[in-house]
Structure formats: structure tokens, C-alpha cells
Amino acid sequence: MNSRNFSRRQFGKTFAGSLAASGLAVAAPHATGSPRDLHRQVWVGSVCMAGIKDKDPKDVCTRILDRMEEMTPYRPDIICTPETFPYANYGGKPKLPDAAEERSGPILDRFADFARRHKCYVVCSTYIKDAGKPYNAAVLLDREGHYVGEYRKICPDENEIAHGVTPGPLQPPTFDTDFGRIGMQICYDANWYGNWHKLGDAGAQVVFYPSFFAGGMMLNSHAWMNKYYVVSSILNGDPSKIVDPLGEEIVATGRAGNWICAPLNMDYAIIQTMDNLKKAECITKKYGRDFRIRVLHVEALAMVQGISGDRSVKEVLKEFDIPTTREQFAAATQLQNSRRPG
After folding, report:
1. Domain count of the fold of the chain
2. Is 110 helix (H, G, I), strand (E, B) or coil?
3. CB 234 within 8 A of CB 252
4. What are the DSSP calls for 267-289, one per residue?
5. What is the pLDDT of residue 97?
6. Where does a domain end: 237, 265, 293?
């Protein structure tokens, strides 16, 4: 499917239909219902670098912006770009910190303009500098093109450090947007699981992953272990993809397209153990199609999603005394430590 030939409404119908066989219900865009129904859905876009051979950073930015423009009929809420993409095909490595920008500059300003024109958040991955030190970073720009903050790659590899890239702070930040809390990780960070866990502890619902390395099943594992969406944007032409909190791939780039834009349901929670899955049957009996419960039977794990109606997943879990997986494990850890000798 060449997604650029579909309207956002058509895409929602097609996307929902294609996923129905796998058990994932997706509300069509602009469906009638309460404001809560419409707020549940956020449209997330991502691009990959496949087919872009330009060496001049200005030309590379133009090509990436062109791809971002192609997805604007869907009115994306946020778009992620690949790791340090302006310099992907640079003739030799860029001189750092000269190439790095500080909250604004030739690269960030162009993507801030896109964000402002399309009322869309942008995760722009490039080199930034602070106090003269260069970082490999993912910069978050808001719907008005304003600088919100940045994630600085915690775990640059040996070649990056030799080139002058500075490792970022050990605590990855999270950012509150108008659709939920997000975080970022970059490329080599995929190998340090603790930092992904920190983002989950901090309440991240979506983690963006600009990268040269596609990550493959590692990203599915991070999403599954931490119970959040993972959105990758890949530099080398391998697929960029979106993975849901159960670790299952929703959509990916490929031969038919170099960008993706898909709706994510932000009103969700993950629950675990057979006792809680039995309790969740009461949600279906009382609320029917207002909530969708997808079960991984072997793992005794389920994703509860709010589809329609005036009650949120958080409210209905409280009604039936069902803890989220994170709440359940926190309570268990506290109990275990209270009984642990010494």
C-alpha cells in the first residue's frame, strides 16, 4: 500500500481493517463520539533514509522535509526523524562542535518551521552543543515550533566518542505533550536496558528511537518489557516501525514506502496474572465494545484500551480493583523487601 495516496480517514479504515485479523481494533479518524473518544487517538509519523543519497546537509534536510510533507494529509501529531540524519552521507565526519547547534540554527530552524506550519510536534535528531561540548541529541519541537527540550544520547559508541561526541546525563528525561508523556533513546542506547526501564518508571507512554541501527526484535522487547509504544526512525534504510506495548509490530516502512503515519491509542494499560484477567472479564460484561482487551494467553498478559464512552481505562481498572502491571510489581517488590532477611 502506498500510503501517500490515502486520506487520513481512508487510512484509518484500511489500517483498522488490516489489523482486525490480529485482534487490534482501531477507531476510524473523525468518528462520532465524545471529545474523550477523539483524544484517545494520536497520529504518529516516522521517516527512514532509504533512497536518500545527498551529501550536503541542506539537501538531506530538504529530502526529509519532503517526506514529512507527504504525510501531512493525515495531520500527524508528532513526527520522528532518523539519528543525526543531516550528516548521514556527509563527505567525511562533520567538524564538531562547529556543526552542532544550540537550540536553534540552520537545521533546527527548518524543522521548527515545519512544526509551526503543520501544528505538529517534531523529534529532530541532530548534533547539539552546550558549553562548547557536542552531543548526539533528539530535540523536541512543539506544535508552534518552540524548543521544548532534548535527549542527549547516553551511550555513544567508541567511534562517536573518538570523534568528540559527549555522553549525555545518566537520567533520560521525559517530556509532557498534549497527548501524553514521551521519552527518547538513540541507536547504541538499545543495549542498555536500564535506561529504557527508567523511562517507564517516569511514566513514558511512547519512546522515540532515532537510530542508524534498526534494532529489530530488541525494540519489540523494550516495548514489551516496559509496557509502552516504541517508534523508530532509521538512518540506514532498514525499516522504521511502531511497536505496541505488547511488543507487537503495528506498521513499518518497506519497499512500498519510506515513511509511516499511524494512529496510536493512548488510553491504555497493561495488566497481568490470571486473577486480574478474570476480573477484566467484568469490564467486557458491563461496558462491551467501549473497551478492547487483547490477551497474550501464554504470558497471562493483556492490554486494555479505551475505545469509546466517557470512562477512561484508569477509571475502569479502579472500579474493578485491577492494578496495572507496573503497580502490581511495585507492590510485590515492596512486600518482598519487607520480608527479606537483613
Report:
1. 2
2. helix
3. no
4. SEEEEESHHHHHHHHHHHHHHGG
5. 87
6. 265
